[in-house]
Amino acid sequence: MNRTIYSIVFLTAFGVTNAAYAQNPKVSSHSFIDGTVNTGVLKLKGELEGALGYLSQINYRQVSLQIPQPPSDELLEADKSYNEGKNFYTEKKYQEAFTSLTKALTMYDKLYYAISVEGKAGKKRMRNVYRRLAAMAYKLKDKKAAEQYLLRFLSWRPKAKPKRVAKYLRPMFKKIKDEYSAKQSGKVVITTDPPGATIYFKTKNMNNAPVSIETVEVGEAVVVAVMPGYEVAVEKFNLEDKKEKTLHIVMKPRARGVLGTLINTKVELIHKTPGSNITASFSTLKVEMMVFYVLEVKGGSDVTVTAYLYDSRLNTKLNQIKQTFNASSFKSEDVKHFVNKLFTGVPLDGKWPVVKPKPKPGVTLMTKFKKFQQSKYFWPTVGGIGGAIIIGTVTAIILATGGDNYYPSGGRYMTLK
């Protein structure tokens, strides 16, 4: 008895699971943005992808793109060289100290991402290595190199006081700082392709691109752009007095990531049948359906969104819709309605609906009568039937009023004998 009950429960659960799977396909999405990007456009992009999570008919799977991990082991190795340089300096082995510190700086230059993530601690690393290299260069009689390192130190700590450097460096430092402070700050505008990368400027997190930094001290500057699925981008430049620097960083997809496949799907959206990259995205993401959004930004606020829905099981584009949103005033409900419209009327179980042919109208008696009514035999037939009815009526009356036997008399009328 118990075994029977368990079997029924199992089969019921299995049936419900299969039904849910059939009606709730796994769906993922990817977005493309064409045109100038601002925070409103990025918010709209997030709302479009997030709206898929509100659809109960599907199982939305967000694309999981990882941010590269900072190479902490390499940073420890660079710190080791830096500490060796400090020890050589204490021992007055200036050439060995300069060599170790130069090696540390070379490694730090390649580890700006790890240094940026550290924030203030990373910034302190950069200041200290420049300060100590200036001291070593001065001890080795290379005053020009010492001046360059002090300038780089000031670009990281523009308000530093002379006591921050060795006593023998202070006259040089004071002169360099007076000239440095006389220069006015500039402006830096940072954009990325695709937009939305996290920007670190001199180890400070400036949020997502596009970023505009109004007041920037002149001299050396380092920008790090980080985005899930992409390689870390590092840009170094020198900002001149009162100048404005526009920096556009093109992000490169990671070689072994799914992003490389997704980026190449854009050119295939014009086709009804999924191309090789769209097909590959199905396999890589392990989903049955893919949604692609193309956001065309016009005038900074108007964004025309075209949505494409592809099904791997039917090997076709199921739907394509378009709508224009205002990036500064759109409502979440309007976005959800747009996404819901994309799935309206399309099969979710991977099967084309069976269209039953409409039955042909049957040939009824009334149909025949109407057809006969329009023919040339209709009125003669009606006349004949009418005459037969009259004769039959008269005959019935005569029979009803006479005897049992009727004989013809040879005339026009029948008479009783």
What does this structure look like?
By secondary structure, this protein is α+β, with helices and mostly antiparallel strands. The protein folds into four domains: 23-65 and 257-343, TolB, N-terminal domain (Rossmann fold, 3-Layer(aba) Sandwich), CATH 3.40.50.10070; 72-182, Tetratricopeptide repeat domain (Serine Threonine Protein Phosphatase 5, Tetratricopeptide repeat, Alpha Horseshoe); 186-250, Sandwich (Immunoglobulin-like), CATH 2.60.40; 365-415. Helix content is 44%, strand content 22%. The chain has 13 helices and 14 strands. The protein has helices at 2-23, 39-51, 72-90, 94-110, 112-118, 120-139, 143-156, 170-182, 259-263, 276-285, 332-343, 365-373, 378-401; strands at 26-34, 59-60, 186-193, 198-201, 204-208, 211-216, 219-226, 233-239, 244-250, 289-298, 302-311, 316-326, 407-408, 414-415. The strands form four sheets. It has a five-stranded mixed β-sheet with strand order 2-1-10-11-12. It has a four-stranded antiparallel β-sheet with strand order 5-4-7-8, with helices on one face. A three-stranded mixed β-sheet has the order 6-3-9, with no helix packed on it. Helix 6 (120-139) packs antiparallel against helix 7 and helix 7 (143-156) crosses helix 8. The longest helix has 24 residues, at 378-401. The protein is elongated, with a radius of gyration of 43 Å. Mean pLDDT is 82; it is low at 1-22 and 403-417.
